[in-house]
UniProtKB/TrEMBL annotation:
One of its GO terms (molecular function) is magnesium ion binding. This is Type 2 DNA topoisomerase 6 subunit A. It comes from Halobaculum gomorrense. Its EC number is 5.6.2.2. The gene is top6A. Residues 199-365 form the Topoisomerase 6 subunit A/Spo11 TOPRIM domain. Mg(2+) binds at residues 204, 256. Residues 147-196 form the Type II DNA topoisomerase VI subunit A all-beta domain. Its cofactor is Mg(2+).
Length: 371
């Protein structure tokens, strides 16, 4: 097997991950040896510390940092938890095992120090993110995975997947059922073999994904339909980026017309605050937004729901969000605040079950130059 296969690349990443973990533990030990109070510095993970990187076209953490230091009881506990987690992850890599983020939370209850256990899963999740940031290695290479996201692909793509039982070649139309091909936790183990894809359509909801497949949109337009399944998991964003970068495919994002769905698009295109340290690995800044937009509510007289107070607050926040500070988004958000309404993708069915595939998407994608 050649040195540049997905499997060999994965093994190299795993070796680097273990080395970086050991280096982190050694750094804390060295601070003890020097008589220093152990500490670990990380970027401050807030919206105010997000900056736009002109070179990569994504949002990343700025220069502000925060410190986990043993000069307080709270800080010492955080470093203790980090040390135990590093030991667990290094052992997991040695044994070629994997675990979920949820399992890590429960495993900590069996550690020989009560102080090292996590109070809730949010705390253990954040610590894994901290380790990613300070090590420069992704959690996938630590063999950490989330609970199954269930996100899928459907379209004219043939790929090779690495599994514990060996390689298998899969065509994402011919070799899968109506549910499509389920995206694995680490999509970097996938090799793209062949395709007839003209563009990638990332879809928020399962209902709209099923409508597109039932109406044959993937076949009629040589489209790869990616089901985001709400706020997309990291694996979904990573494979979307790979499809764009490696196969030179346009990516368009099709969501509901509400502020939370706009943020789904933002996470695909520009990254999120929570994973800003991985924006260059996960985000696809060339991705374009295809709908539902507030202007559609007016133009198509779509069935709507009134904006809740939380929706209004979210829209007003987005006007200050650097990811949405463009003429298009400012115009659409201000229009939505003015009309006080939001609409779902499925609201297009008011014009008929075929309207979305026969009229709405072809017209919109044609105007955008995608088809």
């Amino acid at each position: 097997m050649s040195a540049d296969t997905p499997e060999s690349d994965t093994k190299l990443n795993e070796a680097e991950a273990r080395e970086q973990l050991i280096d982190l533990a050694a750094d804390i030990y060295d601070q003890f040896e020097r008589g220093d109070i152990p500490q670990m510095s990380l970027p401050t993970r807030t919206k105010s510390n997000i900056v736009f990187d002109e070179d990569s076209g994504v949002w990343v953490y700025g220069d502000r940092t925060s410190t986990r230091s043993a000069n307080s009881v709270r800080g010492a506990r955080k470093l203790l938890k980090a040390a135990y987690t590093v030991e667990f992850l290094a052992q997991q890599l040695d044994e070629d095992r994997s675990s979920t983020l949820r399992e890590l939370y429960y495993l900590s209850e069996s550690w020989d120090s009560d102080e090292a256990g996590f109070s809730d899963q949010d705390e253990s999740n954040q610590l894994v993110e901290d380790l990613e940031i300070v090590s420069g290695v992704t959690r996938e290479d630590f063999h950490m995975r989330p609970e199954e996201s269930g996100a899928t692909l459907m379209g004219p793509l043939e790929l090779r997947e690495q599994t514990r039982r060996g390689e298998r070649d899969i065509h994402c139309q011919e070799d899968v059922g109506e549910g499509g091909y389920q995206i694995p936790n680490n999509p970097d183990t996938i090799e793209f073999l062949d395709h007839d894809i003209d563009f990638v359509l990332a879809v928020e909801t399962g209902g709209m994904r099923d409508r597109l497949i039932e109406n044959g949109f993937d076949t009629d337009y040589n489209c790869l339909v990616v089901h985001l399944k709400g706020q997309p998991a990291r694996a979904t964003r990573r494979i979307t980026k790979r499809l764009h970068d490696e196969l030179d495919l346009p990516v368009v994002v099709f969501t509901d017309g509400d502020p939370w769905s706009y943020r789904i698009y933002g996470s695909v295109a520009y990254g999120s605050i929570k994973s800003a340290h991985l924006s260059e690995y996960l985000a696809t800044p060339e991705a374009e937004y295809v709908g539902i937009r507030p202007q559609d509510i007016v133009d198509y007289d779509l069935p709507t729901d009134p904006l809740a107070d939380s929706d209004v607050n979210a829209l007003e926040s987005e006007l200050e969000d650097p990811r949405f500070q463009t003429d298009f988004w400012e115009e659409q958000i201000e229009l939505q605040l003015d009309i006080g309404k939001k609409a779902e993708q499925q609201a297009l069915a008011a014009q008929g079950l075929d309207f979305v595939t026969d009229t709405y998407l072809p017209d919109r994608l044609g105007d955008m130059g995608v088809i």
